[in-house]
Design a protein that fits this description.
The protein is of the alpha+beta class and 139 residues long. It has one domain: 2-Layer Sandwich (HIT family, subunit A). It contains 3 helices and 5 strands. It has a 5-stranded antiparallel sheet, covered by helices on one side. The longest helix is centred in the last third of the chain and has 14 residues.
Amino acid sequence: MSSLASCIFCKIIKGEIPCFKLIETETVLAFMDIGPIAKGHCLVIPKYHAAKLADLPEDQMGDILPALTKIAKASGYEDYNILQNNGRPAHQEVDHVHFHYIPKPAGAGDKAGLVVGWPIQGLSKEDIQKAYDELKGKL
């Protein structure tokens, strides 16, 4: 886990590393991804340093979806993904909460944008009920 001092996104927020800034509020910064998987790929990050979404205080979340919505509308793309990963096994590369806006250009197929597999686990209704009961009991 990266520390606040070495976090690349914290350095971008502080202006120590330049970025292609799109939106900035008191709590979020949105900017172009410098390793895009599609034209228009950008990031929305909270200014508060938290490694994973569950570490981010609720009062720091209010501008995230509105910023993503503004970017989605402004991009002009009809199809897109919003992606947020937590932990290395879930493909998180920077230990600072961030959301990807990834356009899926019409007709691009798997040549641009996010390519996702969806390996359905084939759980029984009983297994789903058990998972539901466990989660619901903790909420």
